[in-house]
Amino acid sequence: MSTQTTSANAEVTDTTDQTNNQERVYSQKEVDDMMAKMKSSVTKKALKPYEELGDPDQLREIVTTYQRTQQEQQLKRGEFDKIMQDLASKKDAEIQKRDVLIKEFKIDTPLVTAAAKFRSVNPEQVKSLLKTNLRLNNEGEVEVLDSKGSVRYNDKGIPLVVDDLVREFLDSNPHFVQPTPATTATRSSYSGNNGGTLDLSQLDMKNPAHRKMYREANQTSRK
Q1: In this structure, are 149 and 183 located in the same domain?
Q2: Is residue 171 part of a domain?
Q3: β-strand pairing of 134-136 with 142-144
């Protein structure tokens, strides 16, 4: 009897061991349920400190709306900046156009007028040569400058004007002046130092002495 009991116990033990050694196989549903339960547990634990803020989905919607609003505002600011830049460019263009008109009215035109008055061969050329010697001051008045950019004055301490500059230039460069017609009036209009008459049309402007006589004749005729 004892032998039979021992044998039966051994069989039960073997059967139990075999059962324990077999791996537990889970169905897909069981796996999904376990993962969902684990995800829910982790999510609740992670969101627990923020429960007072409200529903997570609502929070996401609020954040998304805020970001979209920020982007729209940035776009509007960018458009505003572009508009301001365009306005500034137009303003600069208008100022430049105005300055060109002022310079043409106060510098270019007076230069051409003075050159023509003093019988320049080519008034436009005189203007091109002399306009760099002129500028407009802060009050919009024309100033005659020297080679260093300083305002020039005459012997009486009065600032030079455009006519002064043009006359000085033509006196120093008589080849820019139209020759006087060779008429009887011209021949008798100027008397040289020796008391004789001078035919200006016969002067050689390449000769320094002749240029000097021409300047003296012009100065005498203007008196």
Answers
A1: no
A2: no
A3: antiparallel
pLDDT tens digit string along 86-135? 778 878 877 777 777 777 888 888 999 999 999 998 989 999 999 999 99
Residue 193: pLDDT over 80: no
pLDDT exceeds 80 at position 68: yes
| Residue range(s) defining the domain that contains residue 199 | 179-223
How far is residue 159's CA from residue 169's CA, in Å, rounded to a whole number? Answer: 16
Cα Rg, the chain, nearest whole Å: 52
Q: Which residue has the tokens 């120093």?
A: 172
Same domain, yes or no: 143 and 77: yes
* 23 assigned to some structural domain: no
How many angstroms separate the CA atoms of 210 and 205, rounded?
Answer: 6
pLDDT at 32: 78
Q: How many domains does the chain have?
A: 2
Give the domain-ending residue among 161, 188, 209: 161
Q: What is the mean pLDDT of residues 173-184?
A: 74
Residue 90: helix, strand or coil by DSSP? helix
Residue 214 shares a structural domain with residue 149 = no
Task: Say if residue 104 is in the same domain as residue 78.
Answer: yes
Lowest mean pLDDT among 50-54, 127-131, 156-160: 50-54
Burial of 149 (0-12, 13-18, 19+ CB in 10 A): exposed
DSSP 11-48: HHHHHHHHHHHSPPPPPHHHHHHHHHHHHHHHHHHHHG
Please say whether the beta carbons of 116 and 123 come within 8 A. Answer: yes
Q: What is the pTM of this model?
A: 0.44
